[in-house]
Give the backbone structure.
Amino acid sequence: MSTKLPKISAYIPHDLYKCLQKDQRKTGMSMSQAVIAALANHYNLEETVGKGVRGRTAPSGRCAFSSSKPTPMKGINSVS
């Protein structure tokens, strides 16, 4: 499947991966959709999330990707 969307790749801690995997299974999203939804939620950009993710929400709980406002991620330097 080809796409014109940018591709990212990252190594993440196992605990974070397990939480993401748990959430994506509960919502029926693909892993890519779950990452997009988590990033959009983190940056308060849910309205920009494309078709395929919209309408699906993360389950509430310890691993669910939800926050009231974006917060800096530990170990990541912000670039202006």
